[in-house]
UniProtKB/TrEMBL annotation:
GO CC annotation, single: plasma membrane
Gene3D superfamilies with a match to the protein in the record: MFS general substrate transporter like domains (1.20.1250.20)
One Pfam assignment: ATG22
Keywords from the UniProt entry: Membrane, Transmembrane, Transmembrane helix, Transport
Annotated ranges, domain Major facilitator superfamily (MFS) profile: 236-426
Protein name: MFS transporter
Membrane topology label: Multi-pass membrane protein
Organism whose genome encodes this protein: Bacillus salacetis
């Protein structure tokens, strides 16, 4: 990492920190813990999966409504770090509190998970916006992709520790119940997240901003309204957001509901944890590879590759029957999930006017989060109507197809950076 600056390395290290939450809370241990708690309380498999989907939808709706408003305010000098800090501590605190909720209180688990999800996703809105402050347009793809790569690799460490404690408790090797072992994993996540976020707080600062003015909240709403009125000036940017709205929906839904889906297929918790661990290991270098290939083939073409792979994933998921099938599916997802997220982030960052990055990343957030409402709801309702989780996953194909169709109409960012900046000044 010698080729990167201190600011770039500190920014990328937050991916390393936060990804522990993504794998342990969003994807692996918590969903399994919650599913077991719901099952013990008499909730059916299909309904517990649906309730998790509804919870994710609620959390994303809350942040989707706040994103553009807070983002516009955060464009003022000194505000970006304050908002990042608030959501960061909300996420870390709620994650730690999960460890102290009784395992039979499945509804309380979902409520606390909602706060953790809002905190994590909220901090990421401002973290993503800091990309324009820490690096140049030429290095954005590589820095963004390296951040995701570090996140996937780094998250495997607390994940391994958590899996080891859970597996050893299941085998009776250590005198802990599986419930207690899972709660320890929640505490490990909070500690890891908090510890490795320190460089972000010390070394990353807001360089691009709007000068403070009286009544910042009122004026932020005015700027937000002006952006809506002048939306034609940002056609490439908002066209990309529309494409992103659809394809990232499928990506996020598959990531957050994969363990619940695997459980419904009858795959054991131990097998799911091992599969998810290997997925993280594989996803890391592939995210970096996407960044390197984007410099040769452009970010847009690599986004096409990722979306096409996800279309195949949804089709293949419909025919899943065995644990080996789930392994194949997971490895296919691993090749593209980091790359498609990293390049989407850098693609968008190249399009936005830098001093208004929070405002536009607020839109990036609202498009992504409203999409994240639609996906889980689609899977949840389809699963309940058909009684088959595979049908729900298959239904996501249409989102990827719409996304790639709209993306084909978006120009390459490099040709429009100057035009967008000029439009904003006008």
């Amino acid at each position: 990492m010698k080729s990167f600056t201190k600011e770039e390395n500190s920014w990328m290290l937050y991916d390393w920190a936060n990804s522990a939450y993504s794998i342990i809370i969003s994807t692996a241990v918590f969903p399994l813990f919650y599913k077991a708690a719901a099952t013990d309380s008499g909730v059916s498999a299909a309904n517990s999966t649906a309730y998790l989907g509804y919870t994710i939808a609620i959390a994303t709706f809350i942040l989707a409504m706040l994103g553009p408003i807070l983002g516009t305010i955060a464009d003022y000098q000194g505000y970006k770090k304050k908002f990042f800090t608030f959501f960061f501590f909300l996420g870390v605190a709620a994650t730690a509190i999960l460890a102290f909720i009784p395992s039979d209180q499945w509804l309380m688990l979902l409520i606390c998970y909602t706060f953790a999800a809002v905190g994590s996703a909220g901090a990421n809105v401002f973290y993503d916006a800091f990309l324009t402050d820490v690096t140049t347009d030429e290095k954005m793809n590589r820095v963004s992709a390296r951040g995701f790569g570090l996140g996937y690799i780094g998250s495997t460490i607390p994940f391994i520790i958590s899996i080891a404690i859970i597996v050893l408790s299941q085998g009776g090797t250590i005198p802990l119940s599986t419930t207690t072992a899972s709660k320890i994993a929640f505490l490990i996540t909070a500690l890891w997240w908090g510890l490795f976020a320190i460089p972000m707080f010390k070394n990353v600062h807001q360089l691009h901003y709007i000068e403070p003015e009286p009544k910042p909240v009122v004026n932020s709403f005015k700027r937000l309204g002006k952006t809506f009125k002048e939306i034609k000036k940002y056609r490439p940017l908002f066209l990309f957001l529309l494409a992103y709205f659809f394809y990232i929906d499928g990506v996020g839904t598959i990531i957050t509901m994969s363990t619940a889906y695997g459980t419904d297929l009858g795959i054991s918790s131990t097998s799911l944890l091992i599969i998810l661990f290997v997925t993280q290991v594989v996803a890391g270098p592939f995210a970096v590879l996407y960044g390197r290939l984007s410099e040769k083939f452009t970010g847009k073409k690599m986004l096409y590759v990722g979306i096409i792979i996800y279309i195949f994933v949804c089709i293949y998921a419909y025919f899943l029957e065995t644990t080996m099938d789930f392994w194949i599916l997971a490895m296919l997802v691993a090749t593209s999930q980091g790359g498609i997220q990293a390049l989407s982030r850098s693609y968008f960052a190249k399009l936005v006017p830098k001093k208004n990055s929070n405002e536009f990343f607020g839109f990036y957030n609202i498009f992504g989060k409203f999409a994240s409402i639609m996906g889980p709801l689609l899977v949840a309702m389809t699963a309940q109507l058909t009684g088959n989780s595979s049908t729900g996953v298959f239904s996501l194909v249409i989102l990827f197809i719409i996304g790639i169709a709209i993306l084909s109409r978006v120009p390459e960012p490099v040709h429009h950076i100057a035009a967008v900046d000029t439009a904003k000044k006008a």
